[in-house]
Amino acid sequence: MMYKLLKTSGKVRRGEFKTPHGTIQTPVFMNVGTLAAIKGAVSSMDLKEIECQVELSNTYHLHLRPGDKVINKLGGIHEFMNWDRPILTDSGGFQVFSLASMRKIKEEGVYFNSHIDGRKIFMGPEESMQIQSNLASTIAMAFDECIPNPSSREYVEASVDRTTRWLTRCKNELDRLNSLECTINKKQMLFGINQGGVYEDIRIEHAKTISKLDLDGYAIGGLAVGESHEDMYRIIDSVVPHLPQDKPIYLMGVGLPKNILEAVERGVDFFDCVLPARNGRHGHVFTKSGKINIMNAKFELDKSPIDEGCDCPTCKHYTRAYIRHLFKAKEMLAMRLCVLHNLYFYNKLMEEIRDSIDGDYFSDYKKQKLTEWGEV
Q1: Angle at 113 between CA 81 and CA 33, to 5 degrees
Q2: What percent of the chain has pLDDT over 70?
Q3: Could you tell me which residue ranges the tRNA-guanine(15) transglycosylase-like domain spans (predicted)?
């Protein structure tokens, strides 16, 4: 079996997921490198130093530049970015619906204009699979529609039905591509995506339907798009029991450390979010006592690290005062140091979560962290 449950406690799951590029210990946070790089001048070697297990890149963006066929000619995304661990590629669906202008959704796929130069592009399930096969990522995400929030029940039902049909087409096309002699990664995996907005019954029915396809993993999409945290948790609670329990479950685009703890408690295994890197580039850094803005005047003479006791490359060598100076001087190093710290914070958080599940104290660990962060 690719996914092995090592321990459970209520809905909380501790597992390992075997892939063609290594075994992933779950729960896991995937570090987001949209264009095959983490924004903030963080390299693949840096990712190893900060204990990243999985890197996530984006199909839509890499298709536009440098082009998936270019990356394929260069040996695939692992060789291209010098990363030998697992890579998950987003299907491009979210970007098509959030960035592209003049999009037109039809049964065959989506017609849209590039957000870079306005050129006309078509992407459907087959095209998304072809692009991701060219990239040769470890895990490909199915092409779906990320439903706007709020949306009417009528619109959501029609969209989910179409996403289900698209998922079947994705599976058939990836099976075909994996059988070709010229394919770089013939063991590329496929995760399907559950949609349904904030309608529990639609979500549950969709989860039951896509579970029958026996995919490598399942994601919960269309959350963290404007709904309340209470609605997000309600949907996770309703969906997770209806997804295969012998496959990894991925909550897309989430999020804050407290969201991760809540979702782990509800049975989620995989997470990703641009938030830690984006926050770091603006001087907002995570600590064991909560988030701070390193550019605040009170840190001008602060000779302590960002977070006392942190073993990240930034905290081991630099002070808050120095990093604040770098931001004020508009030095690129400021962003790099804070992004490194934030990603390490997230990767370490997941390691601590795994340890707490192994040691049967996750509930106490969660309460302790929320108290420390002032989130109680």
Answers
A1: 20
A2: 99
A3: 12-373
Query: Above 70 in pLDDT, residue 101?
Result: no
Residue 258, SS3?
helix
CA-to-CA distance for 274 and 342, rounded, in angstroms?
Answer: 11
Domains and CATH numbers, the chain: 3-273 (3.20.20.105), 280-368 (no CATH)
Which residues form the catalytic set? 90, 272
93 is in an annotated binding site: yes
Instruction: Provide the whole-model pTM.
Output: 0.97
Provide the H-helix boundaries in 65-152: 68-73, 77-81, 93-98, 125-135
Contacts of 346 (CB under 8 A, 6+ apart): 29, 31, 257, 276, 286
**CA-CA distance, 30 to 14, in Å (whole number)?**
16
CA 53 to chain centre: 12
First to last CA, the chain: 39
* Percent of the chain topping pLDDT 90: 90
Q: Say if CB 338 and CB 276 are below 8 A apart.
A: no
Is 90 labelled as part of a ligand binding site?
yes
Backbone angles phi, psi at 109, to 5 degrees: 155, -150
> Does 112 count as an annotated binding residue?
no
Give the 3-state secondary structure of residue 174.
helix
CA distances from 65 to 44, 60, 75, 144 (A): 19, 9, 16, 22
Determine whether the annotation assigns residue 92 to a binding site.
Answer: yes
Q: How is residue 241 written in tokens?
A: 């029991």
pLDDT in tens, 170-196: 999 999 999 999 999 999 999 999 999
Q: Given a cut of 90, is residue 113 above it in pLDDT?
A: no
For residue 241, cis peptide bond before it (omega within 30 degrees of 0)? no
| Bridge partners, 285 (sequence order) | 292
Is 309 a known ligand-binding residue? no
